Amino acid sequence: MKDLVEITKALADGSRLRALMALAGGELCVCQIIEMLGLAPSTVSKHLSILHQAGLVEARKEGRWMYYRLAGRTSSKAAREAIPWLRRNLAASPQIVEDARTLRKIVCIDREELCRKQNRS
């Protein structure tokens, strides 16, 4: 039951839902997620930490970059079932559609430049 409580708490925020839906397209650098959400890096890091703690995302560090992706086979059954449910129910949301458009542009930006831009903010 603890897993389910953590998952439902993690899903109770619009920014975290947007981040999860962005990750449905594949792994992203935290800088890309920050740019898409338009939130402070510390706020996005906290959101991603909550999603990670709930078992909904996995993280890896490569050099200075932190990458996130949707949780895979090692996650709990509840987390594995929550993700497709979210995708089905949010795919047509105007915010999610707009985020997907925005993300297509963001992934074309050089990561170095994106991270520098965010560190200046």
Structure description:
With 121 residues, the protein is mainly alpha-helical. The chain has one domain (2-115): Arc Repressor Mutant, subunit A (Orthogonal Bundle), CATH 1.10.10.10. It has 7 helices and 3 strands. Strand 2 and strand 3 (65-70) form a beta hairpin. The protein has helices spanning 2-10, 14-23, 30-37, 41-53, 77-90, 94-106, 111-120, and strands at 28-29, 57-62, 65-70. Helix content is 64%, strand content 12%. Helix 2 crosses helix 4 (41-53), helix 3 (30-37) crosses helix 6 and helix 3 crosses helix 7 (111-120). It is globular and about 40 Å long.
List keywords for this structure.
mainly alpha, 121 residues, three-stranded antiparallel β-sheet, 7 helices, globular, Arc Repressor Mutant, subunit A, single chain
